[in-house]
Each structure stands twice: as C-alpha cells, then as structure tokens.
Amino acid sequence: MAATATAPLAGIKVIDFTGVQAGPACTQMMAWFGADVLKVERVTGGDVTRHQLRDIPNTDALYFTMLNSNKRSLAINTKTPEGLEVMEKLIREADVLVENFAPGAMDRMGLSWEHIHELNPRLIFGSVKGFNDESPWKDLKVYENVAQCAGGAASTTGFWDGPPTVSAAALGDSNTGMHLLIGLLTALLAREKTGVGQKVSVSMQDAVLNLCRVKLRDQERLEKVGYLEEYPQYPNGTFTDTVPRGGNAGGGGQPGWVLKCKGWQDDPNAYIYFTIQEQNWEKTCQAIEKPEWVDDPAYATATARQPHIFDIFADIEKWLADKTKYEAVGILRTFDVPCAPVLSMKEIAEDPALRASGTVVEVQQQGRGTFLTVGSPIKFSDYTPAITGAPLLGEHSTAVLSDLGYTADQIANFQVAHVIADPAEH
Ligand code: COA
C-alpha cells in the first residue's frame, strides 16, 4: 500500500522547520509514514544541505535529497512580519512543528514555545539542540562529531594507541532525529488522551549517550573490579580509571574481532566479523577445523581462552587465508557462528536483497533523474512507504499560501518583496 489516506500518519500535518540532518531525518520518516510534511526554508538558498557537496552543478545535493524526500517546500522569510504571520497561520492548523536551529533562534524569531502553545494548544513542538537545558554548554551550536565527542562515543571508539575516534554512523544527527520521532509519536498518543500538545526536546549529547549505554556500564564495572575482562587490554595490558578504547572487541559477553580473509592485502574490506559464542564453542571449533580445541583445557572455556584470545584469532585468520569473506561466512553460517562480511558501500549499493526489501531504493528526482537512497528500515505488515523525490526550494510556496487564504496579488507582492522564494531562482 502506498502513502495514501490510509497510511499510518495520514492526516497529521507537520511543519518541518529543520535543517542539515537531525531534524530532517525525523520529519522525512514522518513523511514516509504518511504525514503531510511541509518544509519551511530560508528564501536565500533554503536548507544549507541543498548546496553542500554537490555532484551536479545547479542541482540540489544528494545530502538534501536523501533527507527530504516525500516533503513539500515553502520558502519564506520568517523574520519579516508577513513571513511570521504565515508561520502563525500554519501553526494554528498543524499537529506537529519540528525545529533544530541554533539555541535561541526560535525565540529571536518570535516563536517561543509559550507563544506556539498559545497559538495552538494541541500542537506538539519538537526541538533538537546539541545539549539539554541543564548543560553548561547549552548555548553551543553543534554538529555530528561534536555530539559524538560529548556523548561518550568518541572516547570509547578506536584503538587504544590512537586518538578518540568518531563513527561514520550518524549517532549525533540521524540518531537524535530518531529519538525525537519516538518522542513526537509518544506525544501524539498522549494528546489522544489529554487533547493538549507538549514540547518534546532531545539533545544530541543525550541521544549519543543513550547508544553508549554499555560503555557507562563498563565504567561502573571498572570502578568495582579494576579491569574489563572482554577488552583486549585484559589480562596483559593496563587499565586506568576510565573505559579504554577497545578496538573491534565485542561489547557483550561474546569475544569477537574483525578478521582478515583472502585478498585483504589488496581489498580494504576483505574481512569478516567473527564472534566466539560461548554456547557454540564446539561447533565453532569444527567450523574452523580445530576439533582438538573443544576439550583442550587451554581453550575449552572463555576464561581459559581470554589470555590468548589474539593467538586464537590469528589461528582463525590462517583458516580464513584461502577463503573470500563470502566463502567464509558461507561455511561459518552452517555451524551457527555469528558472523558477517565487512561490506563496502559499493557492495551495499549493489546488494539485490537490500533493494528487494526496500532498504535501498532508487528514487526519481526533478532535475537529476534518479538517485539511490536508504529507504525505511522499519517494515510494517500492512504498509509500505512509497519514497518520492525531494521538493525544489519553494516549489509549493504559492499553493501553500493560497491554501492559507492569500490572494494571487498578495502572493505576487510577497515574491516582489522577496518574502517568498521563486523556485526558478533555485
Ligand atoms: N527565514 C528567516 N530566517 C530563518 C529562516 C527563515 N525561513 N530559517 C532559519 N532562519 C534563521 C534562524 O532563525 C537563525 O537566526 P539567528 O540569526 O537569530 O540565529 C539563522 O537563520 C541561522 O539558523 P541556523 O541554521 O540554526 O544557524 P547556523 O547555520 O549558524 O547553525 C547549526 C547551524 C546546525 C550548528 C545550528 O542550527 C545548531 O546548533 N542546531 C542545533 C543542533 C543541531 O540540530 N545540529 C545539527 C545536527 S544535523
């Protein structure tokens, strides 16, 4: 079923006053699930991502199209009295307003939460900032990697002999947007009972930390016992009073590591992730052709293996040396070894199964032809989002204003005064 009147969020009107990634990722998913999402953008250039890292001249960048599909665009200067009036009219009719501007920007524009709540008590207001209201850094502007550093991800990622390292995964941006989405949907459910909307705030630092929960667990364990047995530093290295970087070690009770496969000398992704599952040790030994390890006291238990776990991984790499990553996983899966090939972005882009599931989709885009994007990772039994292109800057300005009751003359005057953007300037 496509995004029609029966889509899960059909009838929910969202004002998408967001930019870059955190806010747009949240509202894009609402649009996929059927909400009417109107992106309100600056007249001059719109969302900055339209222009960032362009691959085709004068064409909205992939950064923008991949985060703003299924939306409409109104480009209006909300710092003019006319623009503010338009915003206020939209707010009166909307269910949700989402913003992720720099701290204080909404207040400076005349759109404080108190004013918004007064205009429309049913409206739910979603807000992303770098830090929460109690933080001494709450006035900071924040991007992805800043949040990863402040949220505990960077200090615990990478190798022990290297600097703090950020992840390629958007833990600060899209992850915060997903947290906000959960908050907004929860507030929509609450409104069913109370009839009243509320403000939902998510800080990027908090959202990153929520994904680093097990590292806080490790901090507490370290303080109790002085070491972390699943980290490569145990038992031969040293621990300080803070959680170290553990390289590619598994974060749970199952040791694992990234292991070289055939061709690793030339292919930077000829690796698999290999997990030694305690309850699967016997089959693991059979899989890697080391049946003698099953009962050998130096190998038979996790405690016995840990002191020489890297020697064990080195032996497994010898077994992997004549197998491609796909061949290795093909064998290991028959022995129930939790493992996967390290996939490059090229392999992911070409993966037929990811295409078949709608996780990677090809989308039509005005002025571009088609582009590849990540579709919905959430699958419903009774709903399949239909992913469409992203709007041009101000593409729907005239239609939106006329729906709000503005006459053709008034709209023309807005254009002359540059209160709204002409999509042709795009
Ligand atoms: N018409 C007129 N003015 C508009 C407008 C519109 N349609 N849309 C936005 N503006 C104004 C804002 O009100 C703001 O005004 P100000 O001068 O009073 O601050 C100004 O444009 C710039 O806004 P913003 O995009 O927030 O500033 P920036 O480019 O300097 O900072 C961020 C960008 C991302 C660093 C900042 O927005 C931020 O820290 N956001 C919170 C955390 C976040 O979401 N980070 C990004 C994660 S992807």
Automatic annotation (TrEMBL):
Keywords, ordered alphabetically: Transferase
List the Gene3D superfamilies hit by this protein, alphabetically: Crotonobetainyl-coa:carnitine coa-transferase, domain 1, formyl-coa transferase, domain 3
Query: Might you give the EC number(s) for this enzyme?
Result: 2.8.3.16
Q: Annotated pathway, please? A: Metabolic intermediate degradation; oxalate degradation; CO(2) and formate from oxalate: step 1/2
Catalytic activity, reaction form: formyl-CoA + oxalate = oxalyl-CoA + formate
Q: Active site annotated at which positions?
A: 173
Kindly give the InterPro entries that the UniProt entry links to this protein.
CoA-transferase_III_domain, CoA-Trfase_fam_III, CoA-Trfase_III_dom3_sf, CoA-Trfase_III_dom_1_sf, Formyl_CoA_transfer
- Which of this chain's residues are annotated to bind substrate? 252-254
Presence of the UniProt keyword Transferase in the record: yes
* Gene Ontology terms: biological process: oxalate catabolic process
Q: Which residues participate in CoA binding?
A: 42, 100-102, 108, 141-144, 277-279
Q: Which GO terms describe its molecular function?
A: formyl-CoA transferase activity
Describe the protein's quaternary organization and the partners it interacts with: Homodimer.
- Listed NCBIfam families: oxalate_frc, PRK05398.1
Give the protein's function.
Involved in the catabolism of oxalate and in the adapatation to low pH via the induction of the oxalate-dependent acid tolerance response (ATR). Catalyzes the transfer of the CoA moiety from formyl-CoA to oxalate.
| Family membership noted in the UniProt record | Belongs to the CoA-transferase III family. Frc subfamily.
Q: What is this protein called?
A: Formyl-CoA:oxalate CoA-transferase
Q: Which organism was this protein described from? A: Mycolicibacterium rutilum
Record gene name: frc
